[in-house]
Amino acid sequence: MVQKVFIIDDDVAVRDAMGMLLDSEDLPHVGFESADSFLGFYDGNQSGCLVLDIRMPGMTGLELQKVMSKFQSLLPIIFITGHGDIPMAVEAMRHGAFDFLRKPIQEPVLIQRIKQALNVETNLQSRKLTREKLHDRIDSLTHREFQVFEEVAQGHANKAIAVTLDISERTVEVHRAQVMKKLATRSIAEVVRIHIEFELFKQFRNPPRNLLQKP
Amino acid sequence: MNQLREFREVMDSASGQPYERSGVLPSSPNRLETLLQNLPGMAYRCLNRTHWPMDFVSDGCFELCGYHRSEIENQSVLWGDFTHPQDIREVDRKVRLATEQRQPFEVEYRIIAKDGTQKWVWERGRVVDIRHDGVAVLEGFITDITDRKLSEAAYIHANAFAQAVVDSVTEAVITIDNQGHIESFNQAAQGMFAFRSTEVIGDQCRILIRTSNYREFDQFFKHCRDQLDPGNPARPTSIGMETRGNKKTGEFFPVHLTIGPVQDKIETKYVLLIRDLTEQKAAEKEAADQRELLAHADRLNTLGETAGIAHEINQPLTAISMYANSGLSFLDRGPKDLSRAREALNKLSEQAHRAGAIIEHMQKMTRPRDSRHEITNCESLIRDVHKLAEVEAQSRNFVIVLDLPVKIPRVKCDPIQIQQVIFNLLRNGMEAMESCSSRQERRIILSVRVIKDGINKTMADRQISDKQTIEKQIKISIVDKGPGIPTDVGEQLYQPFATTKSSGMGLGLSISRSIISAHHGVLEYANNPSKGATFYFTLPCVSLDALVDQTGE
After folding, report:
1. Any idea which of A16-30, A194-208, B198-212 has the lowest mean pLDDT?
2. Which of A65, A97, A127 lies at the terminal end of a domain, its last residue?
3. What is residue A171's three-state secondary structure?
4. What span, in angstroms and rounded, lies between the C-alpha atoms of B455 and B444?
5. Using CB atoms, which residue from A14, A25, A56 is nearest to B318?
6. A25 and A101 assigned to the same domain
């Protein structure tokens, strides 16, 4: 999907000028005059980054940031403000803002940060995809297969697993082959790695930016 | 020789010492006569009877009382005749007492001389004999002490005056000896230190100084003793210092004290003059605080006003900068993007003009100027100030709700001043709501209504006035949902420097009110039935014609 820069600023001249600046860098962009109009457009599938004026009539930039975080959006947010007031910057950064720039803006800095933000978003998206893929695979395991998966990941031998689960060793072997197939791995080491990742994943239910969680 | 014996005794009694010991024994009657003539006074012998008839007086009597020796000796006038009537009884009593006890007597009294002048005299005498009929014979000496008495009286008067001065001054006046012991302690000192004079006289004066300042004071006193010399005009007459005084209660307070020397008979004494600086210090502090507050308020005010402007002007500047950058980028990209570069430059220019317009407006707002009343379209005035206040409201997370009637008559006013008043009231409202910390309902209503003048008039009055010119007014209200105004604040709210806010000076309302009265309107407030307060003011509309004409163009 094509990444876009979403410019949200109530000042038409600023929006237009920023659009032109991004044109000159061949960066695709869309402008919005308010947070609400952006939210009317956003469906959770867009990719890119936000350049957000912190003070706007209606919903402010900080409020939009909170809404986006509820959507578990991966879009990095670059805040723009006319008043470089520290509390607001702290608040924005605490909620995971990508950057906080003062007006008037150092254009090269803005361009550089936008490009970095887009890269970050690409990585986040791909990691998210990997996670989702992994999650899907683990979800496809049957209950019994999942039990075997956990036992194998603990490093237990087939015989021990058979005793624990009270099934025959032969059945364990079948389940085990099935787990390896479904998780698309060939080595025990890989199974262990997947398991660790899965555990981590469970542990951090609420990572700061909600980026690692499956919606 | 009988006379000689007598005068020896007279001299004896006059000097209180026998002749022999003085070693000036007269060698002849002539010498004695000379001596008596040169005495500053009069020697006498008389009978202790009514008015003391005298049978001998010395020549000094003429100078003393203006009568010749012969007049007195032949008793055509008696001594008692010119003794002051108010004193004669006392003199008589003392003489009688001394006579009975065979003691010498000593009296001071007044006489009226022959020319009518009053003189003070001093007399010393004693009984020298008792006549066969029991009447005592007195001999003695009388001298004029008028000068001494007058200077004494003057001294007493001066002293009393000085004491009165000392007691009436607000400074503590304390005299101390060379060692610093308190000798006198005036009323102000008693009030200032809560000590009675009897409690401190004889004590070291440094008990009046706070303990921690003892050393400082001792050094100062030593310095004073070294430097001050009442006999030397080249030396200073007093030296002062600031320190802290100590009350009997243990409280301490700032004082200024000066020490000046007084030459007494034996040693140099000092006058300690102490002024309580508590009020002065408090006033100084208050003045400093006030100045600080004013300076702060001024800065805040300027900041507050420019915050809106700064935001406004930052927008075109941001756009300009970005247009310039994109222009450059497009130029770098070669001929195909030249048209875009041109577009960027055109837009840049537009934004530069926008910035200029904002600055011009700002100058209009901030430039001190005379009040200029002009017929004003009230609606655009309100919308302008709303737009301006909206910036601040957003940053404080407030919404300003406009409530305007369809048509608003025009008013004659100074639009900038009225906008300032509205802005001020809106800001007050927001601050009030912030202070009561309720996060719900962050809305302020700015409403305008057209009202008839004289709402309180009776119907009859109104009907009459309806037929004549209808005076209409517009009423602009700012309704907040804050804590409201406590009822006990009342009119005080409009006083300069009255404030309920933790920051701010309390000038806003008083200035606003004076602006509105200069517009022939009134500024009032009322607490809302539900919550918060409403501040409103009225402005008279231009005329009936303007009312009908409306705000057309």
Report:
1. A194-208
2. A127
3. helix
4. 26
5. A14
6. yes
Verify that B436 and B334 share a domain, yes or no.
Answer: no
What residue spans of B66-173 are helical by DSSP H?
69-73, 79-82, 85-101, 146-168
What CATH code is carried by the domain that includes residue B496?
3.30.565.10
Number of structural domains in chain A: 2
Q: Please give the residue of chain A at the shortest CA–CA distance from B355.
A: A13
Q: What is the side-by-side order of every strand in the sheet holding B239-246?
A: B182-185, B172-176, B268-276, B252-263, B239-246
**Do B286 and B272 belong to one domain?**
no
- Please, what is the average pLDDT of chain B? 79
Q: Which residues pair with A81 in a beta bridge?
A: A102
pLDDT at A2: 87
Tokens 């309107």: give the residue: B521
On the CB side of B362, how many CA atoms lie within 13 Å of its CA? Answer: 18
Computed over every residue of chain A, the mean pLDDT equals 84
What pLDDT sits at residue B205? 87
Predicted pLDDT of residue B512: 79
Q: Is B442 on the interface with A (CB under 8 A)?
A: no
Instruction: Name the least confident of B180-184, B206-210, B493-497.
Output: B493-497
Q: B317 vs A20: CB contact, 8 Å cut-off? A: no
Judge if B128 and B204 occupy the same domain: no
B320/A17 touch (CB, cutoff 8 Å), yes or no: yes
Identify the pLDDT of residue A45. 83
Could you tell me the CATH number of the domain that includes residue A195? Answer: 1.10.10.10
Residue range(s) defining the domain that contains residue A165: 142-203
* Contact residues, chain A, for B329 at CB < 8 Å: 21, 24-25
Domain boundary among B366, B383, B409: B366
Which domain range does residue B257 map to?
169-276
Measured between CA atoms, how close is B328 to chain A, in angstroms?
9
Which one-letter DSSP state was computed for residue B135? P
Q: Which residues in chain B have Cβ-Cβ distances shorter than 8 Å to A107?
A: 321-322, 325-326
Instruction: Report which of A43, A46, A68, A40 is spatially closest to residue A1, judged by C-alpha positions.
Output: A46
pLDDT per position as a tens digit, B422-447: 888 888 888 888 777 556 678 899 99
Instruction: With beta carbons under 8 A apart, name residues in chain A contacting B319.
Output: 11, 13-14, 16-17
B417-452 residues labelled b (16+ CB within 10 A) or e (exposed)? bbbbbbbbbbbbbbbbbbeeeeeeebebbbbbeeee
Please indicate, yes or no, whether residues A30 and A118 belong to a single structural domain of this protein: yes
Q: Based on the domain organization, do A89 and A29 belong to the same domain?
A: yes
B374 phi and psi, to 5 degrees?
-140, 155
**Which residues of chain A are within 8 Å of residue B350 when distances are taken between CB atoms?**
13
Q: Residues B409, B520: one domain?
A: yes
Interface contact B340, partner A, CB < 8 A: yes
Q: Which residues of B touch A105 (CB under 8 A)?
A: 318, 321-322
Q: Does B350 touch chain A (CB under 8 A)?
A: yes
pLDDT of residue B151: 86
> What's the ipTM?
0.71
Query: What does DSSP say about strands B411-413 and B182-185: parallel, antiparallel, or unpaired?
Result: unpaired
**Band of pLDDT at residue A211, cut at 50, 70 and 90:** very low
Q: Is the Cβ pair B319, A21 closer than 8 Å?
A: no
Query: Of B303, B313, B326, which to mutate for an interface test with A (greatest number of A Cβ within 10 Å)?
Result: B326
State whether residue A84 sits within 8 Å of chain B by CB: no
Q: Which residues of B touch A11 (CB under 8 A)?
A: 315, 318-319
Contacts of A188 (CB under 8 A, 6+ apart): A152, A155
Q: Comparing A16 with B291, which gets the higher pLDDT?
A: A16
Residues B401 and B496 in one domain: yes
Q: Is A24 on the interface with B (CB under 8 A)?
A: yes
- Return the residue of B nearest to A105 by Cα: B318
Q: What is the pLDDT of residues B6-54, one digit of tens each?
A: 555 555 555 444 444 444 444 556 777 777 777 788 889 998 888 889 9
